[in-house]
Amino acid sequence: MQAQVQQCFADTGTASMFTFNQLTGFVAVAEEQHFGRAAQRLRMTQPPLTRQIQQLEKQLKVQLFDRTSRIVRLTPAGRAFLQDARRLLHEAENAALAVRRVTLGQEGIIRFGFTATSAYGVLGGVLATVREHLPHVDVTLHELVTRDQIERLSGGSLDLGLARPPIARTELASREFRAEPLLAALPEGHPLAGGSRPLELAEFHGADLVMYSPTESRYFHELLVTTFGNADVQPTYVQYVSQIHTALALVQVGLGSALVPATAARLHLEGVTFRSLRLPEPDPVELHLVWRHANDNPALHALLALL
Where do the HTH lysR-type domain residues begin and end (predicted)? Predict the structure, then answer.
């Protein structure tokens, strides 16, 4: 019979002609089995409800109810149509909720870029915030160096980034999200590996040091050059790398020491000791949230308000 009803829609071309008010009235009468009680449930008078059902039956060209003076029963066609009517009403309600959620930033997609190191200590907190406060928002993650994040944010293929400053693009907005110390990463057996006191920068003068690339890791390269320069310290740079985990791998094999953000200590690499440093600025390593001024994604702005 459901097939007959569906065929009726196809034959008459009337599937799009009935209204959701008619469907609501039909479901109410079907469940109450009484026009008067259904009208009370819908907070309307009975005659308009009766007319709605009559119009619906005329449009569908089927009889939906067997009517007597005491009770109203569904016909076989009515029983089949009831399943579809409930489904359509449910889908309409869900669609309305989804539209409201998207408008409020409670539903949607955020394309989120992050640097490799930020995954160790910062990214998890951001994702936990999304899960707790924006459970209907999907986050797609993209591990990218800062330079590539900036390009994609400017081009509109990313919504939000966790990147290193400075952010020089006028079309982008940013704010500091986290700041953390630098630590000395030392190979096993290094003269400075023992003890608990903070190390002085002067102790790295002339020491072998794994340095960051001035092009591939400009932020950390410039940070270390400035830090050592202000202290009048000149280490011996033995290798240049683009990634912090690569620097730690070289420390692990004894190629030299390295200065790394504190979150890198969460890697717990065997054979690498982390020591604190005495620095003029205790938390010199900055991580910024970055997004495009013109981005109108409501989910993005809902998340920014929580961070």
Answer: 18-75
